[in-house]
Amino acid sequence: MKIDILSLFPDMFNDVFNESIIKRAKEEKLVDIKIHNFRDYSNDKHNKVDDTPYGGGCGMVLTCQPIFDCIDDIKTDDAKVILLTPDGKTYNQSVAYDLSKEKHIILICGHYEGFDERIRSICDLEISIGDYVLTGGEIAAMAIVDSITRLIPGVIEEESHLNDSFNNNRLDYPTYTKPRVFRGMEVPEVLISGDHKKIDEYRKIEAEKKTIEKRPDLIEK
Ligand code: ADE
After folding, report:
1. What does the pLDDT average to over 3-22?
2. Which residues participate in catalysis according to the annotation?
C-alpha cells in the first residue's frame, strides 16, 4: 500500500514511522510512506501557505493553491484522498479495515486556525480521530497509518488481529503471562488446564463481561 501525507511538519513523523512494526513493514515493502511538505508547492515568493479569513476573524487559514498543486502532483487513479479534521467522520476499527484494503491513500493534515473550505472538494473522505481539537492533523495521521499498517496482510500474523478489541463489537479477552502468581495475583486456573475448548469458552465469556462492564455501547451495536 502507498500512503502519502501532506504536512507542514514532516519531522514530526520521523520517530513514529521508524520504529517497531511500521519500520519493519516499510523495510519489507508492505507499505510505502512518503511525507510531503506542501509549503514546497507554494507559488508565493515567501512560500506562504496561509492567509487571513474573508469576512474577518482571528487566525490564519490554509490556502488552496499549495495543497491542490501537491495533490495534482502525487495523485494516482487509485488514490483515496482523506482530509483530517475534527468535523470529519469519527474513525474506528471498521474504517481502519476498509482503508487497509486501499491501494493508495493520501492524508491531508490541516493546521493553524483552519483551511479554505474549497479544499474539501478534492477529498473523498473526511476523518476525525475523536471529539477533541488537536493543533493539527499530524497526530491523527499517525494514528490512522499505525492502525491501518498492522492490518495489511503480512505485517503481523492475521490471528493477532482477529481477536482485536472492536472486532464483532467486542473488546479483547484478558491475557496473562508468567509468573503464575505475581504479588498474590493468580492466573485463572483454566488457562493452565491445557483444555482448549474450555479456554476458548472462558475467553469468549470474559470478552463479553469486559465489554458489558467497560463499553456497553458496543453490545447495543
Ligand atoms: N485536526 C484537529 N483535530 C483533529 C481531530 N480530532 N481529528 C482529525 N484531525 C484533526
Report:
1. 97
2. 86, 113, 150, 164
Q: Indicate the pLDDT class of residue 74, thresholds 50, 70 and 90.
A: very high
CA-130 nearest atom, ligand 1: 6
The model carries a pTM of 0.95
Q: Whose CA is nearest to atom 7 of ligand 1?
A: 128
**Superfamily of structural domain 163-220:** tRNA(m1g37)methyltransferase, domain 2 (1.10.1270.20)
**CATH homologous superfamily of domain 2-158?**
SPOUT methyltransferase, trefoil knot domain (3.40.1280.10)
Collect all residues with Cβ–Cβ distance below 8 Å to 73 and sequence separation of at least 6: 41
Separation of CA 107 and ligand 1 centre (Å): 12
Cα 155 from Cα 141, distance rounded (Å): 19
* Any ligand 1 atom below 6 A from CB of 140: yes
Integer CA distances (angstroms), 162 to 75, 195, 201, in order: 32, 21, 16
Please tell me the residue having the least CA distance from ligand 1 atom 8.
Answer: 128
Which residue matches cell numbers 512560500?
A: 47
Q: Ligand 1: does its nearest atom lie under 6 Å from the Cβ of 82?
A: no
With a 6 A CB cut-off, is 84 part of the ligand 1 pocket? yes
Confidence of residue 158 (pLDDT cuts 50, 70, 90): confident
Decide: helix, strand or coil at residue 126: strand
**With 0-12 CB in 10 A as exposed, 13-18 as middle and 19+ as buried, what is 120?**
middle
Mean pLDDT of 98-120: 94
- Kind of pairing, strands 185-186 and 181-182? antiparallel
